[in-house]
Design a protein that fits this description.
The chain is an all-alpha fold and 132 residues long. The protein has one domain. It has four helices and no strands. Helix 1 packs across helix 4, helix 2 crosses helix 3 and helix 3 packs antiparallel against helix 4. The chain starts with a helix and ends in a 6-residue tail after the last helix.
């Protein structure tokens, strides 16, 4: 059941990420717009995924604001590596295929690989006080 929930949350977070990117491009499509949009999408997806993973995947209850901050920092830190995977695919597809929609295909592939990797990193290094 955890795997199915994680998959649903990953799909939903990917949708939110891509949606924020799309909205960003509709507002600004100039110099460095791809990178700005990727940053906004990543931030939106990160916050949503953290809340869902903490509560419904790892069943973690924070012990106060300090613990919450520490968990979010560790969660974000584990996301740095996986974000490079995601961004690499998105940028790579954008430049290789020279098509505006290719970046979204690359993003979905990169996010899929990243989320699988991130689950194991989070399980081992972030939410270690509960067995999943």
């Amino acid at each position: 059941m955890i795997g199915i929930k994680y998959l649903i949350f990953a799909i939903f977070s990917t949708f939110v990420n891509i949606s924020f990117q799309y909205i960003s491009f509709s507002i600004y499509d100039g110099f460095l717009s791809l990178y700005f949009a990727m940053f906004l999408g990543t931030l939106a997806g990160l916050v949503l995924k953290y809340i869902l993973d903490k509560k419904y995947i790892f069943y973690h209850e924070t012990k106060g604001k300090k613990d919450e901050g520490k968990k979010f920092f560790l969660y974000s830190l584990m996301g740095v590596f996986t974000t490079f995977i995601f961004w690499g695919f998105e940028i790579g597809f954008f430049y290789i295929f020279e098509n505006q929609n290719a970046k979204y295909i690359g993003a979905v592939i990169g996010l899929s690989i990243g989320y699988i990797t991130k689950y194991y990193l989070d399980k081992k290094y972030v939410f270690i006080d509960k067995k999943v």
